[in-house]
Amino acid sequence: MAKDDINIADDDLKAAKKKRETERQKEWNRKNPEKARAISQRTYYKNREKILQKAREKRRKEHNPNIEKSRERQRIYRAKNPDKTREYSAKYAKLKDIENPNRHAERYAREKEKLLSASKKWRKNNKERASEIQQKSSSRRRASIKHSAENYTLAEIRDLRERSGKKCAFCGERGRMTIDHIVPIAKGGSNGIRNIQFLCRLCNSKKCDFDPIEFAQKNGRLL
Ligand SMILES: [Zn+2]
């Protein structure tokens, strides 16, 4: 037998084996419909993002073979209509938030470096808008602190510092501490002493926009 013949025979063998396996699998699925459904669901959820992304790309290409051109058109439209684009994005983001309230924290945990450098780049290219956003958010923050039912006093802060042994509430390091709102002001946290803790700079910068419970979990403080 020539070498090619052997290869072909091998391929046939492999194909036959695969077919037998598929048949067996189908038979098993028929006999165990509930288990089969559970397994397929589990597999689906595990690879959900990938599957959906692939399907989306496929649909897009089928629906519109000139997808690159449309994307370019879209980009131009967005650049020309920033307000409409923002409005639409905000609406879409709200829907997504309802679907998964933790999506930002999850994504941040997944792609921190990428997000930080993208945001830095964006701020550099959109200086005016960036400072507008910054001002808005800090004035909102000031307003909610002002209207907070409680406000910590200097005496309370000193007392807390003594009681905490001048240590970071998360990692236990000593050194320069920052005053941290356990539940962030932006998330409706109070400005009262009960919502205050001392964090070292490193822990404070890591906390960022995480949910406090989630942050504690990440740091192994909670289960
Ligand atoms: Zn720390």
Outline the structure in words.
Helices cover 70% and strands 4% of the residues. It is mainly alpha-helical and 223 residues long. The protein folds into two domains: 1-56; 100-223, 2-Layer Sandwich (Herpes Virus-1). Helix 1 crosses helix 2 (33-46). It is extended and about 85 Å long. The N and C termini lie far apart (65 Å).
Q: How many strand segments?
A: 2
User: Residue-averaged pLDDT, rounded?
Assistant: 83
- Through-space gap between termini: 65 Å
The largest sheet is: 2 strands, antiparallel
**Ligand identities:** zinc ion
Topology of this structure?
Elements: H1 3-31, H2 33-46, H3 48-63, H4 67-80, H5 82-99, H6 103-110, H7 112-125, H8 127-146, H9 154-163, E1 177-181, E2 196-200, H10 201-207, H11 212-218
Helix pairs in contact: 1-2, 7-8
Zinc ion (ZN) is lined by residues 168, 170-171, 173, 199-200, 202-203.
State the gist of this model.
The chain has helices at 3-31, 33-46, 48-63, 67-80, 82-99, 103-110, 112-125, 127-146, 154-163, 201-207, 212-218, and strands spanning 177-181, 196-200.
Which features does this protein show?
single chain; 223 residues; mainly alpha; Herpes Virus-1; two-stranded antiparallel ribbon; 2 strands; 70% helix; extended; binds zinc ion
